[in-house]
Amino acid sequence: MPGFPFGASGLYRTDGTPNSGTFIEDFDSEDGIRFREQLTGLNQSGQAVYSATPIPIESPSPGVVANLYLGGDPAGPSLIVQQDQASPDGNGTFGPQGSAFHKFSLNDLGHVAFTNTLAGVTDGANSGLFLSDGTANGLSALAREGQALPGGGTLASLSFREPQINNAGQVLIQASTAINDNSEDNLETLFLRDGTADGFAPLFRVGQLNSLDQLITGLHGAKLNDDGQVAFLASTIDATNPQSTLAYFVFDPDHGLLELARIGDDLQGSPINNLFLLYNDFGFNEEGQLAFRFALEDGTEGIALATIIDTLLGDYNNNGIVDAADYTVWQDSFGSTTDLAADGNGNGMIDAADYTVWQDNFGSTNASTSTLSIIPEPASLTVLGVLGAGLIGRRRER
Asked: Is the pLDDT of residue 389 over 60?
């Protein structure tokens, strides 16, 4: 492979140009150890977090110690945590034997959130969610199995989903809530940790009504961005959809819950009949854009891109408040069909109705009255011969 040394075993990164491959870590290291089971996350700073099992070079079979490392520093990798190490809260040790660190995420500050099972615990706290600041002594416990939750119930197993950490230090994880002693009654739940002492709180839970009066019947993956927005795929039922159907949602901490797309919605003239139920099989970025796969009843398959924007009705000069200056913008462009900055009702013309929009929202600011809406994106992407289509969606009010 161009840009990569032949005959060398290691972890590499590239900037996407020819001959740009560089070592992050050399797995045939000088101390006689090689690594297996590499599972890697990369951040914008060029750091990589990876799980590895050190194996003596003379031994053909894997060892039992599984460690988590942070690489990318010229001085060499940092050990984040290793098997048999004591938990930072003093309850058990990381393990049990043979248990690797497979579920972790890395932010651009070099902080790592991970889950793991533990051995030698008390009170049934067999799994936990942990945070490392990337240094040898910077490990802390964020949540443990069995802890009480706000609103009732206890936290059940944390070991089967990858956590996500953003650059604000928030951690998102899909786990389960125990409501009684019968594990079959445990309910899948999305939790968001905001960094405060009491900040590990449930966002959405199976069996619970969301703010759109829909009953959540399944949670199928979620993603977190730096603004604290959470995109997720869920199955729900409501008065208009009595059968459980898949839908994509975004939760915004300021504006609440927005439904983006649901099976049965019309997209480019044909109903959606599949949103591809694969865990976390979608993209969500810092601009609040959601990309997801779809299939239509007419046989079309592709990728839809939904963009969520903040709008403040009547704020015609976009300064964050509806005031007298916006009236001037409306007055100066009255009757125009080309200068549409003051087109408050979106009818393509500046008219008296736009004055009413300004009047009704006078004095409002982004902090109190902004809403979320969806704009379509151009159908300009082809992936493996499949046409990508822009999302034509609608906003559901809370």
From this structure: no
